[in-house]
């Protein structure tokens, strides 16, 4: 059983040691951010990100590598690839759906569909023909 006074003394001692430790490093009382002696902002050091190396993963089959390669493409690239293989792309599709559809399109290629020509819209300031309303309108 620890006495309350012993516990309070241990906490105060630990806080004092922590403040001394941060003071020697020049971080300040909080320990996460502060202004160093040179005036630059200091913070938590983050490790350098490792490069993506999918070949080193053990047990990846050719099918899994194809899925990984497709996931690395952007959504626009996936849609273009699907359309090149003659399949339709539904609007507002998620990337996972596009990857699955692209895999299906690559397995079953079709003749590419001709792109629809955009209809020429009339300019907004064009004068519309005015017709008087009749009784039946």
Explain what this protein looks like in three dimensions.
The protein has 137 residues and is mostly helical. 41% of the residues lie in helices and 3% in strands. It contains 4 helices and 2 strands. It has helices spanning 4-25, 62-72, 75-84, 95-107; strands spanning 34-35, 41-42. It has a two-stranded antiparallel ribbon with strand order 1-2. Strand 1 (34-35) and strand 2 form a beta hairpin. Helix 3 runs parallel beside helix 4 (95-107). Residues 29-34 have low confidence and may be disordered.
How do the helices and strands follow one another from N- to C-terminus? HEEHHH
Structural class: mainly alpha
Shape: elongated
The helix content, as a percent range, equals 40-55%
How would you write the strand order of the largest sheet?
A: 1-2
Mean pLDDT: 78
In total, the number of strands is 2
User: How would you characterize the largest beta sheet?
Assistant: 2 strands, antiparallel
What kind of assembly state do the chains in view correspond to? single chain
Q: pLDDT under 50 segments (min length 5)?
A: 29-34
Radius of gyration equals 33 Å
Q: With helices defined by DSSP (H or I, 4 residues minimum), what is the helix count?
A: 4
Distance between the termini: 94 Å
What is the beta-strand fraction?
under 5%
């Amino acid at each position: 059983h620890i006495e309350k006074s012993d516990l309070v003394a241990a906490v105060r001692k630990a806080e004092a040691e922590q403040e001394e430790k941060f003071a020697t490093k020049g971080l300040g009382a909080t320990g996460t951010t502060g202004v160093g002696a040179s005036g630059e902002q200091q913070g938590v050091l983050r490790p350098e990100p490792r490069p993506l190396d999918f070949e080193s993963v053990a047990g990846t089959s050719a099918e899994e590598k194809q899925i990984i390669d497709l996931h690395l493409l952007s959504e626009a690239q996936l849609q273009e690839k699907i359309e090149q293989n003659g399949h339709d792309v539904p609007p507002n599709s998620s990337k996972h759906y596009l990857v699955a559809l692209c895999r299906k399109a690559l397995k079953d290629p079709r003749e590419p569909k001709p792109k629809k020509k955009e209809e020429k819209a009339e300019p907004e300031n064009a004068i519309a023909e005015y017709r008087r309303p009749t009784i039946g309108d």
